Amino acid sequence: MAATKYLKYLNVLSLFDTKRTRDIFQINPTLPTHRTEADEIHIDVFDYSPSHLEEANFYSIEPSFPFRDNNNISWINIGGIRKKDIESICTHFGVHYLILEDILSINQRPKMDEMEPVLFCLLNMLYFNEATGAVETEQISIVLGNNFVLSIQEDAHRDVFNPVREKLRVANSKLRLSGADYLCYALLDMIVDNYYLVMEKIGERIEFLEDRIIRSTNKRSLAEINALRKELIVLKRNVSPVRDLINGFLRTDSDLMEDKTHKYFKDIYDHIIQANDLAESYRDMMINLQDLYLSNVNLKMNEVMKVMAIVTCLLAPATVIGGIFGMNFDKLPYIHNEHGFFIAATLMILAPIIMVYIFRKRGWF
Q1: What is the pTM of this model?
Q2: Contact 196/275 with Cβ under 8 angstroms?
C-alpha cells in the first residue's frame, strides 16, 4: 500500500480540509452546464432474443443506429459523454430535447420522467474509494423505449453492470426471455444493490472508528468523524431520491411497462426503503460517535482535574505548615527548638499520608 496514503495524517489539520465540503454543497443545477467532454466514447451493444445474442463494441455512435429497428431487444450502453454524439443518438431514437438536456447536465437530483415515446430516469452509481475513504459518484441516464434501452454513463471504464452482462450471455435466462422493461429493472437493481456495498464499507469505517474512540481519543478521531459525516451526506443525497424514482415506474401507465414487471420494481422499492433506513441509522451512529468523543474528552479532562485537585490537596498541609513557621514574628512555638525542623517535616509528610488513606477509603480515587 502506498505510503502517501498516510501522509495526510502527519498534519492533523489537513483532515479538516474544507475542499470536500465545497464539492458536496456547491451544487447549482440551474447554472449553465460546463461538462468536460470525454476524449473518446465506448459503446457496448447487446442485441438479444430468447434464442439469439449479438454483442458488439463501437467507438463511434453511428454503428449503433440500426439496432433501433430490428425485432430484438437492444441494450446500448454508452460510456463517455460528448454532446454531439448524445444529440445524435437521442435524435435517432426519438428522445425528447428536455431529456437530452438532463443527460448532458451535471449534479442533477435523481429523478424519473415520462415523455412519450420513452421513459427516462437519471441517478448516480456509487463507488467507495478505499484510498481516500470518499464516496464517488457517477451519473447515469437510462432511457427505456420500445424494445431498446439506452444507458449513458460518464466513465467508460467502470460500472456495476457486469452481472447483467453475464446473465444476458446465458441462453433462456430470465433476462433473455423478458422485454426491455425487465432489462431496465435489472440495471436499476444492480445500481441499488451496489449502494449496499458502499454502505457496508462505510459501516466498517464507523465500526472501526467507534472501537478506536473507545480505546483512545485524539484530534484525528474528531477529524475522521467529520470526514465520515460528509460522506454520509453524499450517500444520503444520492440514495434518498431514488425512492421517488422507483415509485415513478410503479405509478406509470405507459405501455412500455408490462404489468408483470411491476412486482420487480416493487422489490427495488423495498430495497431502497431499507437503504434509506440504513443511511439514517448510520447518521444516528455518527451523532452518537460525536457524543462519545465529547464524553471521552470530558472524562479525560475530569481525570486530569481530579489528579491536579488531589495533588493540590496533598500539598496543602505542607504549604500551611511552611507558611506558619515562615512568618516574621519574634515569638513562635518551636522556632528556636533544635528539633523544630524535624517536627515540621514530619507533620508535612504525615498529613498527606493520612489524607491519602481517607481519600482511598471513601473511593475518591
Answers
A1: 0.79
A2: yes
Q: Report whether 143 contacts 181 (CB < 8 A).
A: no
Decide if 313 is inside a domain.
Answer: no
Helices and strands (H and E) in the chain: how many: 10, 7
Of 79, 75, 74, the residue nearest 42 (C-alpha): 79
pLDDT range class, residue 5, cuts 50, 70, 90? very low
pLDDT in tens, 341-356: 888 888 888 888 888 8
> Please, what is the average pLDDT of the chain?
86
Tell me the CATH number at 49: 3.30.460.20
Are the beta carbons of 47 and 74 closer than 8 angstroms? yes
Q: Give me the sheet containing 52-58, strands edge to edge.
A: 52-58, 42-49, 73-79, 148-153, 134-145, 118-129, 111-115
Domain membership of residue 303 (yes or no) is no
| Domain assignment present for 140 | yes
pLDDT at residue 317 greater than cutoff 80:
yes
State the residue range of the domain holding 40. Answer: 3-296
